[in-house]
């Protein structure tokens, strides 16, 4: 199956030349939820859909627990998750405080297996939507 794309037009605010530029943008299709993943994994393993669903929910909780403890979570064939923080910068080290944290996020670094997979030639097709 091919990945859909569309062509977008945007202004280039970084250039002195204010001409619009065009670029290819990947179109996201459906959202695959935990129920669908559980059904698909059930068909490929000896686990029931309910068992897979329970494991995925437990995995989510364990990832959150370990990230909150400051650990990197390495799901070896998938990648590494780590917690990140968006903070306010200061000129002086003494001015830095935990109050400078504006929000937390998660960094994801794909595994070597996924990085290699991303280098393949994906089939692309122009979206019918635009």
What does this 3D model show about the protein?
Keywords: DNA-binding. The chain is α+β, with helices and mostly antiparallel strands and 130 residues long. It has a domain at 72-120. The chain contains three helices and six strands. Strands 2-1-6 form a three-stranded mixed beta sheet, with no helix packed on it. A three-stranded antiparallel beta sheet has the order 3-4-5. The longest helix is centred in the middle third of the chain and has 20 residues, at 49-68. It is flat, with a radius of gyration of 21 Å.
* N-to-C SSE string, H for helix and E for strand: EEHHEEEHE
Mean pLDDT across every amino acid position = 92
Q: What is the 3D shape?
A: flat
Which stretches of 5+ consecutive residues score pLDDT under 50? none
Spatially, the strands of the biggest sheet line up as: 2-1-6
* Cα separation of the termini: 19 Å
**Portion in strands:** 25-35%
The quaternary organization reads as: single chain
The structure class reads: alpha+beta
Helix content: 25-40%
Main sheet: strands, sense, barrel: 3 strands, mixed
Please compute the radius of gyration using only Cα atoms.
Answer: 21 Å
Number of helices: 3
The tally of strands reads: 6
List the helices and strands and how they pair.
Layout: E1 3-11, E2 20-26, H1 34-44, H2 49-68, E3 73-75, E4 79-87, E5 101-110, H3 112-118, E6 124-126
Parallel strand pairs: 1-6
Antiparallel strand pairs: 1-2, 3-4, 4-5
Helix pairs in contact: 1-2
Characteristics of this structure?
DNA binding, flat, IHF-like_DNA-bd_dom_sf, alpha+beta, 3-stranded mixed beta sheet, 3-stranded antiparallel beta sheet, 130 residues, HU_DNA-bd_put, DNA-binding protein
């Amino acid at each position: 199956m091919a990945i859909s794309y569309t062509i977008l037009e945007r202004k280039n605010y970084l250039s002195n030349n204010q001409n619009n530029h065009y670029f290819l943008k990947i179109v996201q299709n459906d959202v695959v939820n935990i129920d669908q993943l559980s059904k698909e994994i059930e068909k490929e393993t000896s686990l029931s859909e309910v068992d897979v669903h329970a494991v995925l929910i437990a995995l989510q909780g364990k990832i959150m627990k370990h990230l909150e403890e400051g650990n990197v979570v390495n799901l070896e064939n998938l990648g590494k998750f780590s917690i990140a923080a968006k903070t306010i910068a200061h000129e002086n080290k003494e001015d830095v405080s935990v109050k400078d944290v504006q929000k937390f996020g998660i960094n994801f670094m794909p595994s070597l297996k996924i990085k290699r997979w991303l280098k393949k030639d994906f089939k692309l097709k122009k979206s019918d939507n635009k």
